[in-house]
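DM from R.C. (forwarded with permission)

"hey, sorry to bug you on a friday — could you get me a structure for this? deadline for the figure draft is monday and I only need the backbone to look sensible"
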Amino acid sequence: MNLEDLYRQIPLTAAMQLQMQPCPRGWRLSAPLAPNSNDKGTAFAGSLSALLQVAGWVLWQDWCNRTLPTPCQVLAIHFDVQYRKPIVADLEVSVFLPENAEVQRIEEALRRHQKARAQQDVVIGSDAESPEVIARIDYALRCGLKLG
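My reply, with the result:
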């Protein structure tokens, strides 16, 4: 997964000036506040929502691309978010694969049934005890599904 592919596959990420880098078992995504701010000078909720959903999408799409022999689609199917505090700095999120047993379950389901579900918890915030934004996102992973 690279930034050029992300901008092509999800054009909104280019407008957000989203950046990404791999990290052990996951990805770190960031975006500057200025193009993602609202009229109050804080992070726009729509940009935060997009960043959270894209982070999980990047994680699972990259994992599918590296792990499975057939192309897979990753689709966000449910999104639950809590905006706890305004954000007045650049946006940053890190997202990681779940424990190995859960990853194995997902891989086995994809290999056997060509589909699986993955639930991802994602937070934005500098204080782990009290993050600014918390989201739980359900993704459907489908192999061989042709969209568009």
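R.C.: lifesaver. The first helix runs from residue 3 to 9.
me: no worries. The chain has one domain: 3-143.
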